[in-house]
Design brief:
Shape: globular
Helix content: 40-55%
Order of helices and strands: HEHHEHEHEHHEEHH
Number of strands: 6
Length: 255
């Protein structure tokens, strides 16, 4: 079967009534992809940016409301300075190059992470891209940079504590909704499906609070090789699962 036929066959199998509203992806394996091809690691990161473009295109095409991608973690600062510098420059380049396409395709850019830890040029590029796409409403693309799930939770705790200190809320008012409103994803649905390529089977400090009931999908493919067909395969597997959220199968059947 030709590649185009395989793609069309997967599209035809999708249940459009049961699409995940929010997909999260840990974009992992760029360096290993490059090393396996005897290329510098930076070549893998560029290939990873192309893989992101493919995933964004597919999500918009089939009607996914939110796509959140893990681009640079709070732990990634430990990598060699040269690689970190390249990743920051690539991030700026991606933002500058993609804004026009995001506007054309009605995609809004969101950001997860501690912006204060980023350099001024990165912050400026991010602010400009967010402002330029703020009016778009077809899809939200969240990019997590200088992001860590534990760091996000700690920042939300500090914000909540400050609200209590300033007597804007009382401790007894704090519930899951109040706390979630202090997270980077405030106002957004939790991810339905979290995808991790590269053969690793962990979530690596990504969306810890939000992923309490998220369906996990792992792939042995390295991120630059993860194409539209692979994303469709992940979504189809998601659609074959039963999400119970603590209830029994009998309760779900009655509902």
């Amino acid at each position: 079967m030709a590649q185009a036929e395989i793609y069309d066959d997967l599209i035809a199998k999708l249940d459009n009534q049961r699409l995940p509203a929010h997909i999260a992806i840990i974009m992992d394996g760029n360096g290993r992809w490059a090393t396996a091809r005897h290329l510098p690691r930076n070549a893998g990161h560029r290939a990873g940016a192309e893989a992101l473009r493919r995933s964004v295109e597919l999500c918009r095409e089939i009607g996914i409301s939110i796509l959140t991608v893990y681009a640079f973690s709070t732990e990634n600062w430990q990598r060699p300075n040269e690689e970190v510098g390249f990743l920051m420059r690539l991030f700026i380049q991606y933002l500058n190059n993609e804004v026009a396409l995001m506007n054309e395709q009605n995609i809004r850019l969101g950001f997860l992470g501690d912006k204060s830890g980023l350099s001024r040029p990165v912050q400026e590029a991010l602010d400009q891209a967010q402002e330029a796409t703020a009016h778009n409403g077809k899809m939200l693309l969240n990019i997590a940079v200088n992001y860590g799930g534990r760091d996000e939770i700690l920042r939300a705790v500090r914000s909540t504590a400050e609200a209590v200190k300033e007597k804007r809320i009382s401790p007894k008012d704090i519930d899951e909704a109040v706390f979630a409103a202090c997270l980077d994803t405030a106002g957004q649905a939790d991810p339905d499906l979290l995808i991790r390529p590269s053969g690793e089977m962990r979530i690596s400090n990504f969306l810890l609070w939000q992923s309490a009931y998220t369906e996990l999908y792992f792939s042995d493919l390295l991120w630059p090789d993860f194409g539209k067909r692979d994303l469709l395969t992940a979504i189809l597997e998601y659609q074959g699962r039963q999400r119970r959220f603590g209830k029994t199968e009998e309760q779900l059947a009655k509902e």
